[in-house]
Amino acid sequence: MMVVTNNPLVRERLPEEMNLLWVDGGYEDVIVAVRNRVHRGHRLLTHPLAGSVKPYETPYRTIFLSDEATDLHHPSLSVLEQAMALLNAFKGKAGGLNSLRTYRDEHLPDLQLVDYGLVETVIQQQPTMHQSLEQLLREE
Amino acid sequence: MKLELGKVFIEDVQFGESTHLDGRILVIDHAELLEAVSGDEHLWKIRVDLAHPGESVRITPVKDVIEPRVKVKGHGGIFPGMLSKVDTVGNGRTHAMKNVAVVTAGKVVGFQEGIIDMSGIGADYTPFSKTHNVVITAEPKAGIKPHDHEAALRTLGLKAAAYLGQAVKDVEPDEIKTYETLAPREAAQLYPELPRVGYVYMLQTQGLLHDTYVYGVDAKKIVPTIMYPTEIMDGAIVSGNCVSACDKNPTYVHLNNPIIEDLYEEHGKTLNFMGVIITNENVTLADKERSSNWTAKLTEFLGLDGAIVSQEGFGNPDTDLIMNCRKIEEKGIKTVIVTDEYAGRDGASQSLADADPKANAVITNGNANEVIVLPPMNRLIGTTAYVDSCAGGFDGSLRSDGSIEVEIQAITGATNETGFVHLSADAY
Amino acid sequence: MAKKKVVHYLNQFFAGIGGEEKADMPPELREGVIGPGMALNTALGEEAEIVATIVCGDSYFNENPEISKQKILEMIKPFEPDLFLAGPAFNAGRYGVACATVAWLVQEELKIPALTGMYIENPGADLFRKAVYIVETGNSAATMRKAVPGMVSLAKKLLHGEPIGLPAEEGYIPRGIRRNVFKEERGSRRAVNMLLAKLKGDDYQTEYAMPDFDRVPPADAVGDLSHLKIALVTSGGIVPKTNPDRVESSSASKFGKYSIEGVEDLTAEEYETAHGGYDPVYANEDPDRVMPLDVLRDMEREGIIGHIHEFFYSTVGNGTSVGNSRAFGIRIGKELREAGVDAVLLTST
């Protein structure tokens, strides 16, 4: 399982055996990094949008991909493109998510925690689950 | 399973000597209420305030809203698995204190949610401006983790609602409604000529501040299952969801789920209401696939002709909603989905994060991005220190005169996706 | 009270200057009212009058969009109009695109309310329905009399800054703008009602229409190509030099069918593109870049594909209406099927 994140807390708490892809950037950069890998045949294991958190409410995002790359996985691409369309819709005429930003710098540690909290179960299940998670999607 | 729901209509709430009902006035013993809810090691400085409809009061950040209820007859107690034992509830008799709500408020993490204005334009957008609110705020002790803080606040609210509910236990209700759902075989025989209809109830279950509990079980750990609707009226489903104030389901909405009420209203007349399928909204796509496969399977298992599917939350759950809709339709079962929109401030953007041509019957509860200006209020319960950072708030939204420019997504219950309110959106 | 000022836009045809042969006329300013402007002006009555009319050839506008836009804006500005009207364009594709483009520009750049009218399948409607008010009209100029009252009634509302109602009430093509409203019944009750209607098979109106899914599911992979007959079809406008069938550079009303029997390579000497919607330099240098006959001939020789169909089909997808495109597709498909073609390589631009 490949973990694409820009959240320092996820990086810190991620078990060593998991494949980390660190993104030095914002929410959209994570989505773009994931898209690029989906284009190369990796599959989305988690939904690109975070819980009910809007893309302008947090700078952090963590998304899980399959380690294995095969042919382009259309369901993954489709979910991702929908998420990107929504992201772009939120940018509006100003052209950036920043114009809608709702958080302050002092909240960054909390936002890291919320992002981590949304993927915590996936990380914890990892020793028993990650194989099957990838297999589940592969056998579609 | 049969539940008599007795409603006691309250006209005012006051502090006084002992907690009791004085005619239609709820009198609350302040000290006793504090005593009843305290005891959590994580919280201190617990405060109780009252807010009445029409008053110039703003409550924020709101965490949960709960209706006081009490079990009078039948198995178990209110909020099973949370406050009471895990007996199966939903039968016998329950009393509900109408026009009163417990509101918990306070900061859990940096980004904060939920405004209830008791008057002004904001009051039109929240259903909880019409209730007499008993607002409980509490400070976390130093070093408490957000998980524990959220759990402590959640329990505090449930305890307060259960405590106040006791006041209507021995009161003759103003109105008694009987709700009955039979087991599928008998139910199908009861009205063989009517279409069999079910309700697919999606629960937000993604992790920290995004959780919902069923009989005390964290619902992200369940596979979809079937419930009698009356179980939910007894508090079998409890909110731990703090994110997306406008379209999360506070515990109050679970207790008074309007889709369940309105399906019962037609039960035996135009349709045969067979029961509720609860399902979750997951993080992984494999879990989403599994849960939606199960909901579709259960609609078939119940022999349904039609189903209403309601969503909770924004974005990621759109995918669960569309998967549920598509798979249920593929079973040949007619569906209506209930959602809200994020179409941007100008209303011109794509409204949902997912779509499917099979979703051809949609109820919308409005565009959550609509901007309104909330006028200043004379009294504030909680703090506006987080208004800039609440969902839908944005830089500079708190003006110097105390008015707030926000998207309605900051308002508790504004676009609730069970159709609890009257807001909708038209295409221009 | 002084009458409010309106500027009107027309193409060369409706201005009475001429047909296709005059379609390359650059924008011109005419004082007063011309052609359909008369009826609009009369209907505007005491409240407003058309003070000037801008006329521009359809081809000129489509082929010189930047200059046209700039000139037209410069012509409108000095009048400081209270409203801008364009068309109606009915089902004229290039005219519709021009009307909607100019209306949008006036609205965005000059901050003046603008309005146009056209048939719902006009490509201009598809491109600009979200951005500007487009009154829905019939598909030909014969419906002018019906179109005028609708346009004028919406025009008056825009002139007075009155709130604009729902598309069905006002007669404009839905823009897809979502606006909140409190409904009589709560959402749950509406959901129950909708489900009952759906179960009975009665009509019901969804409150949120899913995006338009005019999608064709991709066909299954054909697998082994070595025994199949493959045809080439393009909307990139590749035609034999001098464009013998005069396939239009935009808003195509036809497609061409050409033999490539014995042709190994599409050379710059013998082929070109008729397309007016993209820079043709690279396509004209080597038309294989749009429709790769050279590579397919190699594959034919190597036995990767069976053989290439004797004819290729070509049209232009530049402002061509959905209706025309659909009709072309059906006719081409039928001919290919009759010719025993197994698979088609469809290239765009």
UniProtKB/TrEMBL annotation, chain A:
Native source species:
Anoxynatronum buryatiense
Q: Which NCBIfam families match?
A: GrdX (NF038093)
What protein does this entry describe?
Answer: GrdX protein
What's the source species' lineage? Bacteria, Bacillati, Bacillota, Clostridia, Eubacteriales
TrEMBL record, chain B:
Q: What does the record give as the active site?
A: 242 (schiff-base intermediate with substrate)
Give all Pyruvic acid (Cys) modified positions: 242
For whether the record's keyword set contains tRNA-binding, the answer is no
Membrane-crossing residues? none
Q: Which residues form a coiled coil?
A: none
Q: Which UniProt keywords apply?
A: Pyruvate, Schiff base
Question: Which GO molecular function terms does the record list?
Answer: oxidoreductase activity, acting on X-H and Y-H to form an X-Y bond, with a disulfide as acceptor
Spell out the protein name for this chain. Answer: Glycine reductase
TrEMBL record, chain C:
The protein, known as: Glycine reductase
Q: Which GO terms describe its molecular function?
A: oxidoreductase activity, acting on X-H and Y-H to form an X-Y bond, with a disulfide as acceptor
Q: Which organism is it from?
A: Anoxynatronum buryatiense
Please give the Pfam families that the UniProt record associates with this protein.
GRDB
Q: Which InterPro entries match?
A: Various_sel_PB
Keywords for this protein: Oxidoreductase, Selenocysteine
